[in-house]
Every structure is written in C-alpha cells, then in structure tokens.
C-alpha cells in the first residue's frame, strides 16, 4: 500500500482517491445507480403494466402478489414506482443539462466579451432571479400547457442563471491568464479561445452544479406533478403517483400509496446530493 | 448610511419597471378579447357590439401598445388590477383577501427557519466533528432532499390525523379569527415550508462559522482571555452572519415559490393556492397580477435583508458607491 511514489500519482488519480475516500459520496453513487438500473430494468422486476387498470383490485394492501398494493383504480404501485422512475429521472437530468447548456453559452459570451453584452445578460439574469423559479415555471406551464417536452424546455429556460454565474465568474478570471494571451498571439479566434481553451477549465464546477440541479429538477417535477401541472397523468412519474393521494381519506387509510413514491423521490434526491457533494470536494475545492 | 439606503432603493426602480413590462406583455399574450379584463362581466353582457367598440376606443384598447402600458401601469399603481376571467371578480379584491394570509405564512416560516437554521449551524460549528455535528449534517441533507409536499403529507398524517394536535388545513375557524386562534393553523404549513431553508441555512452557518473561527482575530480574542461564549457569539457569529444573509436573499424566492405547493397541501387560502387555481383554470390575468405582486414582495424582502446586512457590516455601508 504505502509504496506508491509521488511520480505515479496523476491529478485524475488523486481526484479519484479523494472521491473514493468519501464514504457518503460512494453510498450516494451506489444508490443512484441502483435506482437508475431498477427503473431501466423495470420489466425484469415486475410483471405488471404500470397503466393497467383493474377495477376489481382497487386499494389492495401490500401482498406477495402486489408488493406495495394497488391504487385507487387498481394499478400496481410497485410497477408504477419502477416505471415512474424512468420519466422522473429523465426529466430531472435533461432539465439540468438543458439549463446548464444555455448557462454555459451565455456565461462564455458574458465572461469573455464582457462590456455591454455582459451587462445586458447579467441584468436579465437578475430579473429572472426576482421571480421565484417555481412561479416562473408555473406561468410558462400555464401558457405552454402540460407535457413532457414542454416541462423539460421550461426547466431549461428558467434555470440557466446559476450555470451562467458560475461560468462567467470563472472565465472573467481565466481570461486574464497568460495562456489566453498566448492563444491570441498565435492568432486563434475568439470563439475557439472561448470554447476550446477557456470552457474546459470551467467545467468542474459546472458538472457539480449540473449533478446537484438534477436533484432539484426531480424535486420540481414531483412538486408540479403533485399539483397536477407537471407531466400528464397518463404517464406514471413519482410525482403523479402521489398526486393520486391528495385526499385526506387516502392519506389516512392508504399511506403506502403516497409514502412509497415519496420515499423513492427522497432517496434518489438524497443520494444525488451526497454524490454531488463528493464531486464538489474533488472538482471545486474552493467552495 | 442614508446615502447607501437611497442608492439601493433607487436601484430597485428599473427592475420593478422591467418586471411590470414583462407582466404587461404576458397579459397581451392571453387569448380572448382584452376588453373582458378591464370591465366587469355584468357590464360586458349588457353592451351591444357597437357600444363595445365605443367602449374599446374609450378605454384606449386601440391605442399603441406603449400608451396602453403606461395607462395600465398607472392603474396598477392605483390598485386597479382588472378583472378575473374565471370569476369575474376584481383581482384587487382577491389579492386583498389572499395576500395577508401568505404574508403571515411566509414571515412565520422565515422566522422559524432563520432561528433554527442559525442555531443548528452554530452548534454544529462550535461542536465541530462530534456526533452532534455529524447527525446535524445528515439531517440537513435530508431537509433539502425530501420534497416539501411529502413533509406536508407526513405532518398531516402524524400531527393532524393521529395526534390531532393541529388542524389538517385551512386558515381559521369561522368566528374565531384572532391572531392566536390562527397560529394553530400556521404551525404545520410554516414548519414544512421552512424545513429546506433551515437545512440550507444550517449548512451555510456551519461553513461560515468554521471559516471565521479559523481566523487570527478569533485567536487574538481567545488569548485576551474572553469567555468562549463571548468569542463564539460576538466575534464569531456576528462576522459569520454576513455571507449567510446573502444566501438568505437568494433563498427567499424559493420560500415564496414553495408556498404554492404547501398552500395546496394544507388547503391554505393564500396567494400560492390562488395562483395554482388560476393556472389550472387558465385565468391568466390573475396569474400575471399575482406574479407581479409576488415578485415585488420578493424585491422588497431582499432590499430589507440588504439593509440588515449593511447594519451588520460597516464595510458595505461605507464602501458603497
């Protein structure tokens, strides 16, 4: 063990070791992967169709037949949670990626060019932040209507400000470095400097942010679907499953119906958060 | 000091103006006859098409958009928000009814969150790396990971349905509308709304306190022989508070956004549930006006927190442009 020499420890290797020494982060990653594979491999874990309505089997208690019982129209809750994970995770991840993409592009522009472009973008992001994101999302849902792709688009449009701030502040300090001047002296164009030379140096914090905001968007999707404004009810998602349990009668008499999907959301978000925190310690030690 | 306050206040104006423009443009996108938003439905039903056309000219709906915006802004400043599409009631009346409820909820929740968030974070930092600190850290992570509505449903199940300590929802009983009668209704929603803020504040307080406690002036204070309490509170917490206040400003919008979900869970008649009903019913005028009010309230709240930070930190006051 102790024989390792300094020569052999590259940055990537040191980072990996740092990450592996964080037990909570490893646990988080394992749980995320478990939930991901469970929902991708849903057909292997259940033989029920998540949308199959069986009016003769409403509100069945958990049993060997139905692991978590059935809901108000007789759909198998275990199957719905497994299949629901697919959509919930997909929406969260693509929302985070979309928002990061917009943020990165605007951040590069405002960080590298500075001046008026920067001032305008910055002012807009401040205006954006004066509205709560949740309410901005609600308004856009009101205008655009419900739907899977609408939701992802809306998440991306409303969420770009934090990625923008991260990239912008990194690029502002990086563009003063000698290697940028070197690039310019070699006649490399602005766009190339921006995306090939500056951007890769900002990606660490952005990846961390992206991971953590995936958790945020999974929460947001579940909240919206719970309100009945997210993904259409015909598609099972974790939020939509809980949406069925809004009445006091179901809250009291059939707690499994809403506690099980609630636990799934909480577990997934918790694991992503632990994982993201571990990543942050590696990629973004300044934080 | 006063110059700094005035400067901050003036900086709010252009933002408010842009927000109002966005809201106005959003209102223009609402499908349907715009005249139904400016006169009450009873009047609308009585008028003939010719009279309606005349009304339209009189109300200035055929004027250029910029002029209409100015007129609309004037109306809004005087409290004339137009009419709801769904109920036909004046939006100003609806807001007058709902705003105090949400104000109560958000303030109560903010107070709870600030007190407990600072307390837990402070304890975690002072008892750094003990079991207490670890437990706090994991609980804090749970607090930001569990959805608010799930906390809400659990709280209803345990505290309202089984233990019957608090009501399951609503804002007050008919006939018992005093402040202390209402508090019973506020406790559960305010706590559920505040949990994620408690967790966030706790994390930042812990980090910021640890940062400050490692500084040289803390060593100096200790070596002067000041008591541990004195060092931690007066020299530690006071300096740690400034970055925490910045986080608070960023988090207030999230708190207000959370009211939409929490008010729906607890059937609480506030702005959030009004917004929610309006969106489900495609009542866009109500949605836009509610958003306008909410974002103004958030700007005002951030302004207040800014002022508080300036009071705490002389560098901000005197370093101001």
Q: What report would you give on this structure?
A:
The complex is a heterodimer of chains A (287) and B (321). Chain A has a single domain (73-283), classed as Orthogonal Bundle (MetI-like fold), CATH 1.10.3720.10. In chain A, 73% of the residues lie in helices and 0% in strands. Chain A contains 13 helices and no strands. Chain A has helices at residues 11-20, 23-40, 42-45, 77-113, 115-130, 133-144, 148-158, 160-174, 178-185, 190-227, 238-243, 248-253, 255-283. In chain A, helix 4 runs parallel beside helix 8. The longest helix of chain A has 38 residues, at 190-227. The radius of gyration of chain A is 23 Å and the shape is elongated. The mean pLDDT of chain A is 84. Chain B has 321 residues and is mainly α. In chain B, 78% of the residues lie in helices and 0% in strands. In chain B, helix 9 (216-223) packs across helix 10. Chain B is globular, with a radius of gyration of 24 Å. The chains are: A mainly alpha (287), B mainly alpha (321). The A-B interface holds A 126-127, 129-135, 138-139, 141-143, 215, 219, 222-223, 226-229, 242, 245, 248, 251-252, 255, 258-259, 262, 265-266, 269-270, 273-274, 277 and B 15, 18-19, 22, 26, 29, 141-142, 144-150, 153-154, 156-157, 161, 168, 250, 253-254, 256-258, 260-261, 264, 275-276, 278-280, 282, 284, 287-288, 291, 294-295, 298-299.
Flag low-confidence runs of chain B: none
CATH superfamily of the largest domain in chain B: MetI-like
Which architecture name of chain A does CATH use? Orthogonal Bundle
Distance between the termini of chain A: 31 Å
Please tell me the overall pLDDT of chain B: 83
Question: How confident is the prediction overall: mean pLDDT of chain A?
Answer: 84
List the domain count of chain B as a whole number: 2
> Would you report the number of β strands of chain B?
0
Given helix and strand content, the structural type of chain B is mainly alpha
**Total beta-strand segments of chain A:** 0
* CATH architecture heading of the largest domain in chain B: Orthogonal Bundle
The helix/strand order of chain A is HHHHHHHHHHHHH
